[in-house]
Backbone:
């Protein structure tokens, strides 16, 4: 940033997912209303981020750039770090190790390149577990449960 203006620092925490983006988006939009908006997002306390949350960060950065400003991410949590190398547009956002470094735009505090993912992206689904059948049929054709053969009724 070439301007001497101090950026607005906004701390995000908790879930940055499809269900919460609608509450965060108006706050971020309000911060982008100024000419040449400068915004530092402290994302150290974001515990979960999905594709919608990552897309929100990218779109906020694009709007700021379109108005002559900038968005910087500070102290990314594992949930945010997992998106840095994979989400389209995230590479265009400056990411700093600390909030102070982001506010000062200290090049020594920049995180070089996309750090390796340290958390699974929320949108990745675990491999399905194979399920054992609940009922089996024995050679005689009588059903039995997993617990063993059916006991005779008295």
Residues:
């Amino acid at each position: 940033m070439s301007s001497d203006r101090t950026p607005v620092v906004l701390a995000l925490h908790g879930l940055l997912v499809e269900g919460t983006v609608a509450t965060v988006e108006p706050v971020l939009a309000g911060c982008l209303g100024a000419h040449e908006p400068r915004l530092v997002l402290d994302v150290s306390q974001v515990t979960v981020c999905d594709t919608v949350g990552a897309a929100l960060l990218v779109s906020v950065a694009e709007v700021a750039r379109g108005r002559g400003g900038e968005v910087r991410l500070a102290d990314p949590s594992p949930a945010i770090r997992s998106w840095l190398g994979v989400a389209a547009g995230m590479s265009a956002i400056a990411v700093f190790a600390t909030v102070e470094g982001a506010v000062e735009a200290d090049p020594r505090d920049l995180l070089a390149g996309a750090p390796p993912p340290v958390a699974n992206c929320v949108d990745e689904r675990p491999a399905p577990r194979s399920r054992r059948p609940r009922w089996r049929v024995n050679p005689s054709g009588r059903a039995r449960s997993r617990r063993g053969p059916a006991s005779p009724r008295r």
